[in-house]
Amino acid sequence: MEAMPRHDPRPTAPAPPGRSGRRGEGxxxxxxxxxxxxxxxxIIITIxxxxxxxxxxxxxxxxxxxWPVFLAYVLSYAYIAIYWVNHHRLFSYARRVSNALIWxxxxxxxALSLVxxxxxxxxxxxxxxxxxxxxxxxxxLPAFAYSWLQAxxxxxxxxxxxxxxxxxxTSRKGVFATIIYAAGIPLSFITPWLGIGAAALVAxxxxxxVGPLDRLFARxxxxxx
Amino acid sequence: MEAMPRHDPRPTAPAPPGRSGRRGEGxxxxxxxxxxxxxxxxIIITIxxxxxxxxxxxxxxxxxxxWPVFLAYVLSYAYIAIYWVNHHRLFSYARRVSNALIWxxxxxxxALSLVxxxxxxxxxxxxxxxxxxxxxxxxxLPAFAYSWLQAxxxxxxxxxxxxxxxxxxTSRKGVFATIIYAAGIPLSFITPWLGIGAAALVAxxxxxxVGPLDRLFARxxxxxx
Amino acid sequence: MEAMPRHDPRPTAPAPPGRSGRRGEGxxxxxxxxxxxxxxxxIIITIxxxxxxxxxxxxxxxxxxxWPVFLAYVLSYAYIAIYWVNHHRLFSYARRVSNALIWxxxxxxxALSLVxxxxxxxxxxxxxxxxxxxxxxxxxLPAFAYSWLQAxxxxxxxxxxxxxxxxxxTSRKGVFATIIYAAGIPLSFITPWLGIGAAALVAxxxxxxVGPLDRLFARxxxxxx
Amino acid sequence: MEAMPRHDPRPTAPAPPGRSGRRGEGxxxxxxxxxxxxxxxxIIITIxxxxxxxxxxxxxxxxxxxWPVFLAYVLSYAYIAIYWVNHHRLFSYARRVSNALIWxxxxxxxALSLVxxxxxxxxxxxxxxxxxxxxxxxxxLPAFAYSWLQAxxxxxxxxxxxxxxxxxxTSRKGVFATIIYAAGIPLSFITPWLGIGAAALVAxxxxxxVGPLDRLFARxxxxxx
Lengths: 225, 225, 225, 225
Known about the structure:
Four copies of one chain form a homotetramer. With 225 residues, chain A is mostly helical. Chain A contains nine helices and no strands. The first copy, chain A, starts with 29 loop residues before the first helix and ends in a 5-residue tail after the last helix.
């Protein structure tokens, strides 16, 4: 899928040092995809705060009514932040720009761009069952795009042993997170709070410092030591 | 048009490696135009999602009423994404900053900035005839600015044989896309869905993997093999 | 004003090639100020399009009522674009980050951030006298911040003969533009269209290709030839 | 906390010149964190201007009613700008990306993203007591995240004597600013203007040129001379 038109002039030789051959004969330019992705993610993560409308009437007790919107914002901020961090690490293994890399990345950004919508629905509807289910379903979409992106970079990016370990460990972590999100959907039929709990669990699992859980993932992949 | 004031100190000598001479005696700085364009395009592509207002009442059947807004968002997201990808490839052939390069690029960004407006009109009006026609007309504007931009880079950018092939093949593709958009306008008088179909066809044609169609474009230009 | 605390470790030695010493012992980092400015300007120039609210009722004649908002958008887009272009050129002469450089730049970005407000007022009020006067007054603010910024870069930036010519020619152009904006304010009391005309004249004067007018500015400064 | 999974390939060796090893074997990439932070801060600082809604009725006396919103915008713009400047200086001492660096930075961006909310509350409520207290409390949150970020960079970043002086002097300045913000909260019970005055004092103290106050901070830390 990432085959280029055969008249494409992009060389496969390694880029010169400095700006990774940004200028010149159409050299690989992974950096610009990163810059664009950073811009899109920065906007997605920030426009969610626009849903926090201050109450028109005074008094702190009115502010308190905003807690579902605020909680939805915190959850989604953590979610988008985790994706940015993983994107940042994954792209450090990318080597060349291909059609597949560009469109897998665009698909990921598209999926992430739906998060403000379902966050607004979740917060504005006060964690109703339908809102929670839509929210968890929206959380699943970026996972598929991310898997595609990782498959592309695994095939066309850095091919060292360290890269292989990285891809195996993070793929396992990603599958695990996806299963928890998916499990949250039926659990939301019992009570929406189980669905929200599933989303919070995944966020904690990625944000919290590396511990026994991470070592578990590393070991299962046959990481020596 | 891209002649600079004759007191301009920008050298024509190749930039030093590294940041392409970003610092120093007013060296060429194509990179900063890219960064700015990335920012503008990232905002354009993301603010369209703000039109997806979640319904105030609960229930999934209420969500379903959003489908025209969502479909308009998907179409426009693909449209802007395609322009970004093409811009990204085209600028890999740019070599020096000129007045014409800056203003052709500004014209392109201006034309693209109208897309959220006509997308909002299309989605909010449920694909009415007038909305579809305005949408397709807005899709035509960036094509003119892009042709200007490509003409500038063709004249002042990389002059290799590969660059020539790239410019010829993509220009043909661009003309083809423009004809389909323009054809969508009269077709919308029969039914708006023919207009929407034209827009979807162009999007598919750019996003889908390189196949026989691309080879056709390459061959017609005399590409050997 | 741009003196640094004397415990500041930033060296005055030239930065290493590549990213202009971005990493390391707190070296000068003009590039990051540019990136931040690009982001702010990209948002300012793009959020103005959010004022273009599509009409709720159908029919092209309803779209026509949007012309004042659209015209205000075009004028302000050109205005912000011109500032970005000038900022881009001016920063190619900057060499080191100082307190004055940072805060003059922040003042410029602040002044520019008011443009969407007065554009919205101008477009929404249909070019009423008060709206036109406020618009032109807002256009004057960035000029003062820009003069401060240019003064800082003139003193601390590249000191070549070409840089001197650049600063003299663009300062004259800036003073000329400022006079026309200021003249537009009393002219708006006759009819707002004279004020709008003044703003359009300045935009045309910066955007249009370099011609006799530019040569005039270059010559008056004693540019040889 | 910032320990990486032990299969992480990021080398501790200094990055090659140029883009600081951005490409390649997952080298350190502090630059991309800066780019992302710049994007988020640029959006935060700019969306606040969207609260400045032009009055629907004409006449300059109607504009005058906007002064609380405008004053709140100026204060918050200065506040965010100061954080950007400090972030910019602090990151010039960062050397390698760690989990702690990423998440301390994300926490800072999250805390800053709440500023538009409390600014909107402050301006829209006309500096009522509750709004002023919430505003000052929001101003305190980023200080904690920033302290965490600085602690991480102090431990893992550049270890020169100049870096040590920088960290000591700015930490003292930060503690001082935090105390004034915290003091503004009880003072707001007397009159909200004492709280606003506290916020303005801190802004002036960071923005104004380096003077006797800065020298005071430098000296107390045992800075020779």
